[in-house]
Amino acid sequence: MPLDPPDRPPVVAADAPTAVLPPVPLPPVPLLEPVRPVIPARPVQPPAVPAPVPASAFAPAPVHAPAAPAAFRPLFVDAPGHNWAGPGDRWSDAWGVPTPVGQLPAAPVAAALPAAGQVGPADLPLTARDVELVRAGLAAVEPVADRATAHFYALLFLRHPELRSFFPAAMDVHRDRLFRTLLAVVREIDRPVALRAMLAGLGRSHRRYGTLAGHYVAVEECLVRTLARYAGERWDAEAESAWRRAYRMVASTMIEAAEEDARTSPPWWQGEIVRHERRTRAVAAITVRPDQAYPFRAGQYAALETPWWPRVWRHYSFAAAPRPDGLLTFHVKAVQAGWVSNALVHRAAPGDVLRLGPATGSMTVDHAAGPDLLCLGGGTGIAPIRALVEEAAAHGASGRRVEVFYGARRAEELYELAALRELAALHRWLTVRPVLSGGGPAGGVLTGELPEVVGRFGSWAGHEAVLSGPPAMVHRGVGVLVRAGVPAERIRHDLAGDLAGG
After folding, report:
1. pTM for this one?
2. How many Cβ atoms from other residues are within 10 Å of residue 116's Cβ?
3. What is the pLDDT of residues 76-113, one digit of tens each?
4. Of 176, 208, 201, nearest to 74 (Cα)?
5. Residue 443: per-residue pLDDT
6. What CATH number should be reported for the domain holding residue 478?
7. Which of 91, 294, 322, 407 is the most exposed place for a label (fewest CB within 10 A)?
8. Mean confidence (pLDDT) of the chain
9. Distance from C-alpha of 152 to C-alpha of 98, rounded to nearest angstrom
10. In the chain, what is the straight-line distance between the N-terminal and C-terminal CA atoms, in Å?
11. Which residues of 246-258 are buried (b: 16+ CB within 10 A; e: fewer)?
């Protein structure tokens, strides 16, 4: 599920959809560059994951005690600067790259944490009145969200200028993400299980910025002052108390998840680009060698940062299942005004170093058992679909069929079709159906918008579905599949993953 600001005849089972279109041959779509079989060697001694931190280090402080220093430290505080990739960083040290004398940048000044305040679960649980007040306050701010979020960040950087280096130069995406995160949290605030899962992901993702427990105190004060300014008549002492309790519940959950994650995982990985293949004029397949073991599942995605746009992270799905050599592959499409995507497609080359956040996302599949699988992949959204098919082939389909609908506007944009057809030729449980919404070769190929083409096949009851591609396609696809008989709880996508993107 790449996110950037705005990637044979059918074998019909007995319970397959009743209305099946006849198979239509499509001319083979060759790759723009041949896939080279040579895989670069992995490092002999990659750096190890830090040793676990004793559980006693994470014991909560007394409720009214002064804030203590954070019990854990991000692994990259010893690098010469946030987001640094070059001489003297952890990647260079681990791979034996010498640091030229006089070229090591000066170490950054440590962020001065607030000296007072305590983030803790003292006021849990929230009452129904608290939830009502928090939702009313956010509803009052929503019409002026742009001004409110701009005011919040201005206040944060004015009071704590040392935090400015944690953020990118352009703040428009961060301002938008802040309010969308608040909306998502408030929407789930009375659903503790869903809320905890969301906040745990946010807490883990914030580790890559160097976020410490004391920083949450600074955010609380600036957030409360911003709400007091923009919530109007909805703001009073009772509302402030409710917001502080809600915020401290959010912060304590995020801190707890970050500290737990820090026991076994680094906050980010360094990865060297070892292969850069142009599949179309705008799409590149990028293979990365991480500096240490990188755990993930097919269907998940990771946040990437390039050295050319520090502190700007964008999500890209893994385009291949986990492989023995540990290499990772991403499909990236350069989009208009996409800083990261254009850098990765048009500027990146083998030898460049990226940073990777941890794998996340729930679009995974249990290959041991389950109903037949229906996959919709549009554009570079075919990347996680390809990974899921590879994973199914590695584990065995366990009797299930896998139907893949691969959509694009033009035939030349079906850059992964040849590889998918090779897999389909090897596995009778796999069917691949290309779909073109724009101009295509002569002949009766499946044409139309991808969700509507899938809907023509009649009922998809009894299937499990995954969707990946442009947000508009995914939203339409969910509606089509529900009407075609797929239960909503069996439809998965990762559009909501942007909240954790940072």
Report:
1. 0.73
2. 9
3. 333 333 344 444 544 445 444 455 444 433 333 333 33
4. 208
5. 52
6. 3.40.50.80
7. 322
8. 78
9. 42
10. 16
11. bbbbbbbbbbbbb
- The answer to whether 317 and 498 are in contact (CB under 8 A) is no
Domain assignment present for residue 92? The answer is: no
- CATH code (residue 196): 1.10.490.10
Model confidence band, residue 264 (pLDDT cutoffs 50, 70, 90) = confident
> How many residues does this entry show for the chain?
502
Do 450 and 393 fall into the same domain?
yes
For residues 301, 306, 310 and 312, what is the CA-based torsion angle, rounded to 10 degrees? -30
- Same structural domain, 284 and 255: no
Q: Are residues 294 and 255 in the same domain?
A: no
Q: What is the rounded (10 degree) CA torsion for 285, 288, 294, 300? A: -20
Q: Residue 343: which domain range?
A: 269-356
Question: In sequence order, which residues have a C-beta less than 8 Å from that of residue 10 and are 6 or more positions away?
Answer: 20, 23, 431, 433
Tally of structural domains, the chain: 3
The verdict on 236 and 293 lying in the same domain is: no
| Average pLDDT for 264-275 | 91
d(CA 144, CA 122): 32
